[in-house]
């Protein structure tokens, strides 16, 4: 039996309680709590929404259009933060093992999406875990914004000077803006058939939730 994603995140947090400075841990917890408390599902993408055509950049730099992604059937987009995010390095390989086989069997393609740019190392996470699905860049958070997924921390920390590894440098936005983790299933008509958004990045959609949702949908006409 595959360990749940929540259990893996609980283990990560437990390790941080032992190894992190109290102030750093406090800021992390309070930021996640604030995002969860202020989260309004009405402002984010939901099942039944129709999404306008969009484009993403694969981790090798090639541009892929939404019509290409859905040409053979629905696509499930996994929005994640950036390649170096510890929680994302737990979530993506977990989804590769626990979610991808079931979705592929149902004719659903899986693509991970982040504002992290190809030219600043997006492909590192795919290579590190030998992921079996594509990883793509949402340059400038263009799609994430349209879907209501992005946020900037309330404290909006000062912009680091000369630090090429901070979030704004990795994404090219020059800001701390990131997407909330989410899974969005889009059919060939660009209609959202399932969407789940996680404001707390240490509480993400379980693979079983997506599998159950797909099994409960009639995707035959979209495949």
Shape: globular
Order of secondary-structure elements = HHEEHEHHEHEHEHEEEH
CATH superfamily: Glutaredoxin
How many domains comprise the coordinates? Answer: 1
Looking at the overall shape, the CATH architecture is: 3-Layer(aba) Sandwich
Uncertain regions spanning at least 5 consecutive residues: none
The secondary-structure class comes to alpha+beta
**Numbering strands along the chain, what is their spatial order in the largest sheet?**
2-1-5-4-3-8-9
Overall helicity: 25-40%
Main sheet record: 7 strands, mixed
Q: On the 0-100 scale, what is the average pLDDT?
A: 94
Number of E-type strands: 9
SS field, number of helical segments:
9
Identify the CATH class.
Answer: Alpha Beta
Radius of gyration: 17 Å
How is the CATH topology named?
Answer: Glutaredoxin
In whole angstroms, the N-to-C terminal distance is 29 Å
Beta-strand portion reads 15-25%
Polypeptide structure, described:
The chain has 223 residues and is of the alpha+beta class. The chain has a single domain (5-222), classed as Glutaredoxin. The chain has 9 helices and 9 strands. The chain has helices at 5-19, 22-38, 66-69, 86-98, 100-105, 123-129, 142-146, 167-171, 207-215, and strands at 55-58, 63-65, 75-79, 109-114, 134-137, 150-151, 178-179, 182-186, 192-197. Strands 2-1-5-4-3-8-9 form a 7-stranded mixed beta sheet. The longest helix is centred in the N-terminal third of the chain and has 17 residues, at 22-38.
């Amino acid at each position: 039996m595959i360990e749940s994603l929540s259990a893996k995140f609980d283990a990560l947090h437990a390790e941080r309680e032992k190894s992190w400075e109290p102030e750093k841990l406090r800021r992390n917890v309070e930021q996640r709590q604030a995002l969860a408390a202020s989260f309004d599902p009405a402002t984010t993408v939901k099942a039944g929404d129709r999404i306008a055509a969009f484009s993403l950049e694969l981790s090798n730099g090639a541009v892929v259009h939404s019509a290409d992604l859905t040409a053979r059937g629905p696509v499930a987009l996994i929005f994640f933060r950036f390649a170096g995010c510890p929680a994302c390095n737990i979530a993506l390989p977990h989804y590769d093992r626990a979610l991808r086989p079931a979705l592929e069997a149902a004719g659903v393609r899986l693509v991970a999406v982040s504002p992290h740019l190809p030219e600043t190392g997006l492909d590192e996470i795919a290579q590190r875990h030998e992921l079996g699905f594509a990883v793509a860049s949402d340059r400038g958070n263009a799609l994430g914004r349209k879907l209501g997924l992005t946020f900037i921390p309330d404290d909006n920390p000062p912009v680091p000077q000369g630090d090429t590894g901070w979030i704004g440098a990795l994404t090219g936005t020059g800001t701390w803006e990131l997407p909330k983790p989410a899974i969005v299933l889009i059919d060939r008509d660009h209609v959202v058939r399932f969407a789940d958004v996680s404001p707390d990045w240490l509480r993400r959609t379980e693979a079983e939730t997506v599998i159950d949702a797909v099994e409960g949908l009639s995707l035959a006409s979209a495949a």
